[in-house]
Amino acid sequence: MSTVPQGQRVLSGMRPTGALHLGNYHGALRNWVELQYQYECYFFVADWHALTTDYEDTSGLPQAIHEVVIDWLAAGVNPSVATLFVQSAVPEHAELHLLLSMITPLGWLERVPSYKDQQEQLRQKDLATYGFLGYPLLQSADILLYRPAFVPVGEDQVAHVEVTRELARRFNHLYGREPDFEQKAEAAIKQLGGRNITLYRQLRRRFQEAGDQSALERARAVVESNARITVADRDRLLGYLEGSYVTILPEPQALLTATPRVPGLDGRKMSKSYGNTILLREDPDSVAAKLRTMQTDPARVRRSDPGDPDKCPVWDLHKVYSNEATREWVNAGCRTAGIGCLDCKKPLIDRIVEEVSGMRRRAQEFQENPELVTNLLAEGGEKAREVARATLDDVRRAMHLRSQ
Ligand code: TRP
Ligand code: SF4
Fold it and tell me: How many CA atoms within 13 Å lie on the side-chain side of 41?
């Protein structure tokens, strides 16, 4: 993993909320599987986050954590490439959360869109808690601790990454001041070497004098792609671009996952709360049975009635699973009543049964040997902790707190 360039780390997390379904796979996991081969990836189970809404009965947590990790492995997340861990095994998340809480204006948290929305949606639970209000802050700590370049998330989480960026900026601004910063930054520029020295200076000037954002981005890339400089110099150079502070906590970017609409069996979005899901590790017979009875275009009552794929959730599944040729066959056959709905579903059933069978195969070893999961999480936790400790050391030093 040491070959992955600095600054090209990826971090994401998921709550342990029960068995994952195909919507989760196409909405997040499939993307993780791809990213793990391109970046140094950290994926964690956000068990403390689960407590922000489900604090009354926590007895199911150990099982839920175990199962969600097996689902990741089933989906192809590879623990010898990516680092997998459980949030609560890395107490540094809690310490950074505490320190960040000191500099977080309440308004920033109250304005996060999910705060009021979720409180209303989950009215049966009392969510007027301190933990629930602070949930985006916990997420910021999760992220900033690993100094990732990218955070793959769905649309609903982009606001949280935005808060994280604001917090990083605020933190750097408050605590990133060094007495001899300018001299150190100038010395660091020389470490860039060759033409990058002039390039960095030119780009910095273009940003500072003309506000040229693209110059800022290019300058950052010059710094981040340089493998020769130390982490401290890298932070100085990044901070020097925008002002004169050390970037202790770099601002991460949200990596918006392109998510196809995965319909559930009733045509609504696939979601655990609607009870319309196909699970990642569902029994193939059950997958086939569910798909056979899945909702189709309601206007197509008899086999001889032509249908409209645009009004049919099965068509949405074809968009996710089928190739061009099959889709053309569906489209033409449906509109002319040339094919029946069961004919139409047949290639889908084959594809999804095959996909789910692959996941079950990959999961089997871990289901039979639960200690494999325990061990890989322990190993991942150790690795994550090393990164987390290094960040917290810098944070403590910057805040003049005792180092450990
Ligand atoms: N809040 C995310 C969710 O509910 C989970 C999460 C927690 C997360 N911490 C994170 C995602 C850090 C990305 C990065 O889905
Ligand atoms: Fe839907 Fe296919 Fe039936 Fe058309 S033929 S209504 S696309 S299931």
Answer: 23
Same domain for 307 and 195? Answer: no
Counting ligands in written order, which one lies closest to the CA of residue 342?
Answer: 2
Residues 126-136 pLDDT 10s: 778 899 999 99
Q: Is 86 in the pocket of ligand 2 (CB under 6 A)?
A: no
* Top mutation candidate among 139, 143, 271 for ligand 1, by most atoms within 8 Å of CB: 139
153: region left, alpha or beta (phi > 0 left; psi from -120 to 50 alpha): beta
Q: Which range marks the domain in which residue 354 is found?
A: 281-366
> How many angstroms does the Cα of residue 370 sit away from the middle of ligand 2?
42
Residue 143 one-letter amino acid: I
User: Of 16, 45, 25, which Cα lies nearest the Cα of 358?
Assistant: 25
Task: Kindly report the CATH number assigned to the domain that includes residue 11.
Answer: 3.40.50.620
pLDDT tens digit sequence for 192-233:
999 999 999 999 999 999 999 999 999 999 998 998 888 889
Centre of ligand 1 to C-alpha 158, Å, is 10
The pTM (predicted TM-score) of the whole model is 0.88
> What is the secondary structure of 179-213 as a DSSP string?
TTHHHHHHHHHHHH-THHHHHHHHHHHHHHHH--H
